[in-house]
Design goal:
Blueprint: E1 3-12, E2 15-26, E3 31-35, H1 40-43, H2 45-55, E4 64-70, H3 82-92, E5 104-106, E6 109-110, E7 116-117, H4 122-132, E8 135-139, H5 143-146, E9 154-157, H6 160-167, H7 198-210, E10 214-217, H8 224-229, H9 240-252, E11 267-268, H10 276-280, H11 290-293, E12 298-301, H12 309-313, H13 316-321, E13 323-327, E14 332-336, E15 340-345, H14 364-371, H15 376-380, E16 384-387, H16 406-424, H17 436-439, H18 444-457, H19 461-477, H20 485-493, H21 496-500
Parallel strand pairs: 3-4, 5-8, 8-9, 10-15, 10-16, 11-12, 12-15
Antiparallel strand pairs: 1-2, 2-4, 6-7, 13-14
Length: 505
Amino acid sequence: MGMATVLSRAQHGMEAIPVRVEVDVGGGLPCFTLVGLPEAVVKESRDRVRAAIVNCNYSMPSGRVTVNLAPADLPKEGGRFDLPIALGILAASQQLPVGRLAACEFYGELSLGGDLRSVRGALPAALAASGAGHAVVVPETNRSEAELVTSCEVAAAGHLLTVCGHLDGAAPLRFGRGQPPPRGCRPGADLADVRGQAHAKRALEVAATGAHNLLLIGPPGTGKSMLAQRLPGLLPTMTEDEALTVAAIHSAAGRPIDLERWRERPFRSPHHTASAPALVGGGVRPRPGEISLAHHGVLFLDELPEFQRRVLESLREPLESGSISISRAVSQLEFPASFQLVAAMNPCPCGHLGDVAGRCRCTGEQIGRYRSRISGPLLDRLDLHVEVPRLTGSPLAEPAVPAEPSAAVSARVTAARERQLERQGRSNARLSPPEIPRYCRPDAPGRRALETALTRFGLSGRACDRILKVARTIADLAGEERVGGPHVAEALSLRCLDRARPAGA
């Protein structure tokens, strides 16, 4: 008998940590021992591996089989180690040569008949393997996902016998590198579908240009959700690195990757009953939440005050840092969460404040209690809050001027975003406090307008920073180098809740 080592990786948040599957086959009473902090699913691999080996006409060693998943202090989960365990047993019992096991990593869950089933996190594993200079063998169902890493040599197999045929030289697997998916995106919802709401459309354009967070306030049926759903179509197309990061997050979460939407910005819209772990990530074995699935895209929270206060407050840290840390007793995980927040709410509990005369029966106390569900610190992190009033006139009447399509607005957004990247290397919304005086300093009229608003509305320091960043974005859209008074004035007009809040409130 003997010993064999097979390379694989464990999924730990967004990391794919190297794992050496060490198998020793020796004499003694029949025994199959699995060590190295395996969780229940990994422990059950003993029975799956035993049945798969026998049903593939190989012999299960009759002596003592010891499998060590190193490092021993890293928890192991999932069925991804079935294939490397089976190969290690066959190599250690000299039924397969060990030569081709080197410099190659293996992943796959085994059925009792030897079929290979897909595993979670094949894309992060391929990324890490490419960095280590290793090729990977994955189940056929994970092929397209692993081949997104164009720098990694990938081979796919549908059965244990196929992998064994490669290792004994009877039918070598074909390793190759995938091609990046096409750059095109499928046409989505168009801004031209939204009737009227010129002020809200302008706010949407400003938000898309500077990656600003946006709050839409208005009665039911005024188009708040329609506007939010059209924001991804205004944003610049993702780069290949951004698209790969987004795909890796979906892979780590166990979600399918749609190659036809490869370059489309994510759009996530969780229900207001979502829990904090569902939104920010977590669970017994932490996985990415909605804010991470919206990385490089848009997170839309409809009926914002209906979310639990604790859930909304959990957004404050990732809105500032662009990532979320999840701590557990034995580990700490970090997931990327650089998303653009768009929220919608009614102006009052019934939703008809200022809509139709005499229709709203909400008292001032009820309205104040409804709006107070959103804390001041969270409101400060929303760069824009814009009213979306109900349209007057017939909804069936043809508009006097054709609405501007998303493609035209997106072209302006992309040009202005390129100005930001050339000037400071990031979008205006991501500027740090020390960078704001350098890039967003207004001229004398703009400074006077901001000082007047600061005194009149009692703005916080964070709110002033947000206003300056929005004014910088408006200047970029106009193609102007200096932030002027009109830019600051428009930025102030896009924060209606500040104007409704008296000084000292």
